[in-house]
Structure formats: structure tokens, C-alpha cells
């Protein structure tokens, strides 16, 4: 490494970019490296889709409302910035799948829709006797010889048949990606299913074994046993704020957009919407894939990102006094199958999942609308979306009074779709980047995982790569 100070620029101040900045700064300080760091965010706030609302004693999220406890990257980051004691595990509650007009309890032992206990699966009303027999064929169907990528739908229909896919697996898995299981890539979304089949042949046996090896809760004894999800007492925004406070303020630039990125010899030039051009030795792009492709449109490497689909969704949060509702189901979560005449795709009773976030005697519902092939509702006015959601809720529970308030949040083209071939596309793109645009990295929800832990992990990974690269210059 020469005596000249090097510069790394991070584009995008969502949780991926913030994580990259935090871990880069940590490495620079710990090793006294002659590297300057800058994070550029186009808007006037950091955190991207992570946005917490505090209203009338309620606390709720506009975007993601939690992260998986068993994926430890986000927990580790929270602890590093002094928020370890603020972590909260979810309460347990009943989950249902709505098929047509009938809610069915989620069979006990189901792991993302895959049964690991036979008795609840045999007795559930989710499937016909024929559907149950077809699903039992999983014990005898040989593992797939061809290891090429395929859709979740193709994979699961082969093992369990159409009923289990449509009435159980699809509502659960598409709820995560707001996508179509017959288009989503198995390899890029849930490769563990492919690995389980390869090792154990039967997916039922495989997931039961993996569940025994990897319990659903994290390794932290202070969380409730079997807490699948974690948040923070003051909301996920506090994680964003905590990481921002841990980063030197002069590193962060808000309200400036990077319009174009060019490589000049061994350095990069970034054209900003302010008219200014800055130079960097390494660039980390954590913006959504459409924005990344626009910045780097001069390079054919990024052409596939132009054709990568995204889905629009909306969250609708509704607050009630407890006496206004008669909850016959006693549900905490409901996932809705495509075979149902409902617009909502899922609903969570936040007062049951996160009682610390809702005043005593109140009920807070969080409904989701929008998914691949059913996105038009997201473009409706707030009051129309609210009316549609309320009508759906009235089919499920008795509502005798008006809500205290409701809040609609739209996320246009915000859910990247990892369609079949996504993993191969990333491999090819990263290989070409290393050859043609060394020192430039892409990371974030568009690439290797939508969840907060996956984004944090990607941020830390590209931080390591950027430091290693500039040290070699």
C-alpha cells in the first residue's frame, strides 16, 4: 500500500450501507489504515425501509417489523453499538392459514410449511384426504438428480403435490417475498430445502433433522425460548440511529444523489446531482438494483439488473380499543392463500406479538396488501386501501366500532424478486466485476437476502473486500 491515502465511497444509507460504513470505520480505526470513508445517501434520512412510528402510545413499523433471531448478524451489530439490552423477542401466539373463507390453524411442527410432525398434518383440515396421501409420497419420491436451479413451486409440487403448495407453503413463503412461488428461485431463497432433500431424500425427514440441529430461537439466553423474531424496545429505527451515532458524522452525506459512476484508470469518478464529481479508489453500491443499474448504465455487466423484477406492497396499520373487536380466532398471525377472495395477504395482531409496543386495552393490527400479479391495490388512495382492508377484516372478526386511527405505507417496487437463475446471474456479474471493475461492489436486498441480518452480513462482507482491495493498490 502506497503512502497516498485511499478513499472508499458507500452509496446508499439503508441498513446495508450503514453496516458497511460501520465495519469499514471499525477496521480503519483498529488498524490505523490511511483510508478515507464517505457514505452518500440520496434522501435526508438513513435506514431505507426501516422506519418506526410512535403515535399515541403505540409503536409500529412502516417497513420490516423484526428480524430472525437465528440469523445473528443483526443481533451482533445491535450489541456492538450498545443496544444489546434493548433487544426483545416476540411473544408466542396462534397462526392460521386462510383458505377460501375458512381459517385453519397452522399445523404444529410446520417449518415454513414443511411438516416435521405427522399427527397435526394428518388431522388438519387444510388438505383433502387425497392431498394428504399425495404429500406422504415425499417419503418415497427420490431426490432430484439434476441440481440446476428451479422454482419453489416446481420443487415443492414434485414432493408434496398441489394442495400442500397452494394451501400452506405458498401463503407462508410468498408472504416473505410477496412473490409467485412458481417463479421464485429455490437456490436463491431457500437453498436449505434443496440441501435437506439432497442429504435425506425425504424433505419431511430432512427438515425434522435440521430443526433438531438448529432450533428456531437464537443462542441468547435472555430472549424468550422459541422467540423466532427479534426487534428493539424503541423500534428498529433505534438500530439505525445507534449505528449512525457510532459512525463519525463527517463521513455521512445526506440529500445528495449519485447519478453516474465511471471508472477512470484505477479510480472511480462519481457524478453527483449537485454538479460535483468526486473520486474514489473503491465504491460500494447498496442502492436498489434499478438505481444501481442506472448509475452504472455504461457497463453491460449490469444489464441483467434492468430486467430484474420487483413487487409493490403496502402495509396498513389499524388501531382499535379492545372492546371494539370480538376476536373469535384468538389469532396472532393469519396468512392468506391465493385461493381466498381477500385482498390482504397477511395480518398480524401486533398487541399480541409485541405487547410492549401497544397501550394496555388496545389492539393494533398490521395488514399487508400487494404481491406479484396483484399489485393494483397499492396504487389506490389511502382511504380506499383502508376500506378494502377493513372489509376483509370484517369477514374474519367482529368489529363494532371505528378505529382510533389507521396508517397506510406504500413501498413501490420495493420487493426484489429472486426469480429462477438469480444466483447464476449474481455469480456471472461478480466474476465480471472482479475482472473489469475491480474495487466496485454491490450489496443489499436486491442480491443475497431481503432480511435485516442478510443485509447487515452483506455490508460487513463488502467492507472487508473493499479494505483488502485498497490495501493492495
Task: Give the tags.
single chain; 473 residues; alpha+beta; seven-stranded mixed beta sheet; five-stranded parallel beta sheet; 16 helices
Form type = globular
Largest sheet: 7 strands, mixed
Q: Mean of residue pLDDT?
A: 93
Count the helices. How many?
Answer: 16
Strand order of the largest sheet: 8-7-17-18-19-15-21
Could you explain how this protein is built, in words?
By secondary structure, the chain is an alpha+beta fold. The protein contains 16 helices and 22 strands. The strands form 6 sheets. It has a 7-stranded mixed beta sheet with strand order 8-7-17-18-19-15-21. Strands 10-2-1-14-22 form a 5-stranded parallel beta sheet. It has a 3-stranded antiparallel beta sheet with strand order 5-9-6, covered by helices on one side. Strand 11 (258-264) and strand 12 (267-272) form a beta hairpin. Helix 1 crosses helix 16 (452-471) and helix 8 packs across helix 9. The model is unreliable at 216-223 (pLDDT under 50).
Fold topology:
Blueprint: E1 6-11, H1 15-30, E2 35-41, E3 52-55, E4 58-61, E5 67-68, H2 73-80, E6 87-89, E7 94-99, E8 102-105, H3 118-123, H4 129-136, H5 152-160, H6 162-177, H7 186-189, H8 191-200, H9 203-213, E9 229-232, H10 237-246, E10 252-254, E11 258-264, E12 267-272, E13 277-280, E14 282-285, H11 289-295, H12 303-306, E15 310-321, E16 325-326, E17 331-336, E18 344-349, H13 350-353, E19 362-369, H14 382-396, E20 398-399, E21 405-416, H15 422-436, E22 440-442, H16 452-471
Parallel strand pairs: 1-2, 1-14, 2-10, 7-17, 14-22
Antiparallel strand pairs: 3-4, 5-9, 6-9, 7-8, 11-12, 12-13, 15-19, 15-21, 16-20, 17-18, 18-19
